[in-house]
Every structure is written in C-alpha cells, then in structure tokens.
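PT: before anyone asks, these are the final sequences, not the draft ones from last week. 734 residues across everything. Please model them as a single complex and drop the result in this thread when it's through.
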Amino acid sequence: MYKLSGVTKEYQKGSRVVAALRGVDLVIEDGEWLAVQGRTGHGKTTLLQMLGGLDRPTSGTVEFDGQDLAAMRESQLTGVRAASIGFIFQTFNLVPTLSAAENVEAALVPLHVAAGSRRARAAAALESVGLADRARHVPSELSGGQQQRVAIARALVKEPKVLLADEPTGNLDEDTRDEIIGLLERLWREHGHTLVLVTHDSALARRAQRVAVMKNGQLAISRAAGGRTAAT
Amino acid sequence: MFFTYLRRELRRRMRQAAFIAMGLAVGIGLVITVTAASAGVRNAQGTVLHSLYGVGTDVTVTKKPAAGSGGPGSFGFRGQTGTSTRPAAGTTIDIDNLRGAGLGTLASSSVTSISRVHDVAAAAGGLTLTDTKITGKIPAFNSSSGGGFGGGGGGSSGGGSFRGSFTPTSFSVNGVDIATGELGPLSSGKITSGRTFDSSDVSANVAVVDSNYATSNKLKTGSTVTIAKTSFKVVGIVSEPAGDSTSDVYIPLARAQALGTSSTGGTLKNDVNSIYVAAASASDIGSVQKAISGLLPGATVTTSASLASQVTGSLASASSLANNLGKWLAIAVLIAAFALAALLTMSAVSRRVREFGTLKALGWPSRRIVGQVMGESIVVGIIGGAVGVALGFGGAALVSKLAPSLTAQVGPTTGSASPGGARTFGGGGFGGGGFGGGAGNSFRNAAADAGHAVAVHLTAPVTLTAILAAVLLAVAGGLVAGSFGGWRAARLRPAAALAKVE
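LR: through. Structure below.
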C-alpha cells in the first residue's frame, strides 16, 4: 500500500524554482488500478517517479508498505525497485543490443536469479504476452506493439507488487493500443498487482478503478471509475 | 548476462571500439618499440663497455705516462757490425722489442694493495705492450743526402732507398694475470680452439692468440709466435665479441714482465700498466673507486659509469634519441590514447543515459552498471594491448632491420681506460732523419690520443617484461577510460536519465 503525505517536489530551473508536485496526499490500496490523468507538465510523471523511488520529494513522505521511500538510502531504494516495482515506459526503453528474452532476463539480474531459472522465467513471461516466437529477436526487429509487450513481460517477470506504467500506449497506433490495454487489464486481473497508470488516454483511464487528475502539481480530482476488481 | 551484454555492446559500437583500441595499440606499440630500442642501445653500450673494459670488471686502474716518456724509443744497434756511430752498409738489422706504450706503469704490489681494499672482490694486473720487429739490411747511401744517424726530426725527406730496406711489423701483446682469469682482457673472449691458460702456464712460453690475428698470420694451435725474440707456443685461439678491441697475443703476465721494457727502456719486472678490479657488488663501485684513488693518488681510476659518460658517436646519439625523444614521444602518445579512450567512453555513456536509467529503474545497482562500462573498456584495452604488442614486435623488428651500425668512441683520454685500445704504427716514419732522432720513429697508442672507436649493430629485443608492462598499460588504459565512463554512469539519477530525450 502507498501512502503519500504532503509530497512536494521542486526543481531549480535557472533562477526560478518550479514546483512539479504541491502537497500531494494520496493513498493507493494493494491490488488497486489507479489511472492518473492530466495535461503535459502538470506533474503526472513526477508523481510516478516518486511512487517508483526514482526520485525523492523535496518534502513530504512516500510510504510504501510502511517504509518511507524518501528516507531510504540509495541502495535500499534500488533493492525495493528490483524486488517490488515494475516499470513500463512510453518509449519501451529496451536495451537495443539484447534480444527480447535477454531484455526480460535483465529484470532478474539484480535479484541474483540463477541463469537457468532466469531463462525459464523470461520465456514464460514472453509467452504470457504472446511473444514466445520472438524471444531471440532484438528490439529493432520488433514492431512498436511487440516492443511494448516485451517491456510488459520485463516488468512482470519478477512478479512485482506494483506495476507503474507511464503512457504505455502513447507511442502506439489505435489497434495496437487496444491490444496493449487488453493485455494490461488481463494481466492485472490475473496477477492482482497494484497498477498505477499515467495516461492521456481517457478510454484507457476509464478502465481503471479510480482516476486521479493532476493539475498544477496538485491532485485535483479523484473519482471512482468503472469499479472493476482484480481477480485476487 | 554480463558477457552477453558486453559482447553485444562492443559489437554495436564496433567502429568506436576499434578506434579506441587502435589508439591504445599505437601508444603501446610505440612504448614497446622505444623500450626495445632503448634495451638495444643499452645492450650496445654494454657490448662497447665490455669490449673496452672486460666482462666482470667494475673498475680499471691505469696511470698517465710520465712526462716525456711518451716520446720515441730509440732502436739501438748494439751488437751489430759496423762502426760505433754508423752501421756499415749491408749490416743485417733484426730488432724485436716488447714495450709498454701510452700507459704509465704501476707497481705489481698495487694489485695486492687494491685487492685488500674493502668491498673489492678481486683485482688482477695486466701489461699492455707492443711487440715491434724491424728487419732488413743497412743499404749503401750517399752521406750527403740525409741527416745521418742521431739527427733531428722524423721527416720523410731524404734517405733515398733507406726506408724501403726495412720491414717494420708490430702487434699488441697482453700480459694476463693467470691467477684471476675471470678478470681482465681475456674475460670476454671465447676459446675457439685449444685452451686458455692454466696455473701451470705462469712462467711458460705459451700464448693465446686472437682469432683475427691468427687468421691473418696463419696461426693455429701448436704454431709458434715470436715475442721479443722468444718463441711462444700457441695453446689457444680466442674469439672476442664483435666490436671488441682485442690484443693480438696474450701471454702470461710473468713472461710479459720478464720480456717487456717500459717506454723509457726500463725493466717491467715488477710492474703492470693496467689493474682490473671487480667490486663485491654494483653498489660498492663508487666507494671502491674512491678508496683506490686514495690508495694510488697518481692513478687514473675509471668505472664503467665514467667510461659510459665518455662514449660519444652515433651510439651516444641513439641512446639520447631513445631515452629522450623516444621516451617522451611514447608517453605523449600513450597519454593522448588514454585521454581519447576516456573521452570516447564518456561520450558513449552519454549516448546510453536512457539505457542506464532504465537499468537503474529495473533495480540494477550502480556498481553493476559501472562494472559493465569498465568491463567493456578493459576488453577494448586488452584488444588494444594485443594489437599494440604485435605493433611493438613489428616496430622492434623494423628498428633491428633498418638501424645502421652504431659507432661509439671513447676518449680522447690520457692514461686511457681502454687498455686494449688499438695500436697503430704512427709517428714520422723512418725518414732520412735517421734512428734515435727527435719526434719520429715512435709507436704510439692510438687510444691515448685519438680515442677508441667500436662499431656495434643495434638490435631491439622485446622482453617479456616489456610485453607484461604493455598489457598492464593496456588494462590501465581501459581502466582509466572505464573509470571516467563508469563515474559518469554512477552519477546518473534514474529520473533524470529516463527524462533525457534521445
């Protein structure tokens, strides 16, 4: 469970101080699907980075399972990310020199999983996103949709508690977008992880249990959406 | 995963990796070539110094000839027929003298005194002499045309056919201290036929002949050679290293002392004119030199270091080139290669910021990412090192093949430290001035006033140490480059790295 209290994030831009988050308070329950919407530059991605321990707030606390991510040492944060948090990025962010299977395996490297087990788990993850036959292909040999499926498999292979997705359909055409939305929803139902999804796409946001809207660094609205529930 | 990732990344950046590796290779190749050339020059210097000095000798002791004693020796006609002032025409002349020339004498007891000096391992005396033979018949000549016997300078005018009537020959003779054979002029030679001296030869008329002299005079083991009218049996032929300045004939020291005369005509019975000294260790050479200088105030005490400083000629130029220009050029290229490798690696890291940011988001610790960058750089460094070693071998082979023969010149020195220095038959010749005259008729030691030249071929040996050093340098180059790149990668904040637009 996440509990954010008075989270503020300020950046120095030249002589100006820009506040990306202004006193955000938020609770995200385990297994919840939360969609975060808002216009560009209003703090959606910054909020996601706070949840993922990729950045620290200027003030406030980001509690994850009772531990304040903001107060953790870098090595502890790295450990939390390695074990409990999966990321999906808009631009896929696959390592271009590694094959689809090796990209998925990369998520298990910091967990010191033995090579054989790593390969088996990566193959299973690729199978679950329908890319078993593309395991040996490098990203440049895959379509955008296929690359995002590899990224989803990479995020899920370690069976994280939380999946953080930043505009996962932003770079995809409409058909592929629907395909990826369907996949994310299916996996969320199957795995029961917490899903925080930043999106401009209202169609995608509507599928979430709750929708939060970021405006000028503040969580302006939080409303119930479709009321879907995870399987577990 | 580490090696797969490393291999794929290097393959992706093949051109850049090859560029970095080549930069390192050129630097390392140059270091190996220069090191090999330096070693070659050092070896050449060693060869030269050994040839001038004798293997195992750390210090030589000689003495300047006494003032005026360097002048001509007179060749008397005692026992010849003719008048008391002038031999009659047709008189047979047969002179065979063994004389010291160019070096002053030292008492034999000095050898013992020196051997007692603290830190002296061994000391051996030696006599460097010249055997001169003049044979012929006094011709009939017109007394009005020449200066007559006992006349002035050694001019070549006059004399008519007088000069053509005599056959002067000379060769160098070295009296060897048999008791300490590991020191002195024979120490660097190799016996190619027969044997060297043994303890039973101390007072025997036996000789070891230099191979070149033996060839030109058709001498072999068992032949005889006449020195100061005494027959010596050749018991061995010795070959000195290339470029060595050898004596023509080596005889036991006691025999040289018995038969030789000083340049002033005195006996050499208890004298030597060179003392070869071995110090207990290389670090003792300075103190030994000092002690001997105190013991024998009039003597010239020379060490290999002081001799090396007197080496001039193209060898000295090559040494200076290898040690100065070559060394600094190699260092400059190496620094440039390291800097280039570091810059390119940092630039490669900059291009992979999002990739490393993603890996950090996946939970890769910074040290793992730094290790990946360092690993890539070290592999490039090792490839550069391997190519560099090959280039180094090529460069060294080229140096060995293309380098001209180097010459080294020592001197001019008085009381020369080159006891085996070449002798020439110099002076004014046998002119109408006549025997016993002023400046003419002298045999002088060329080493004493013209220096001693030795030619050596430069080879550039690549040593295992140089190869190991090169490999270490290559790895160091990789580490330096990787450290810069890794440092940059470690400092990446994941959020900032992921926000970077590519």
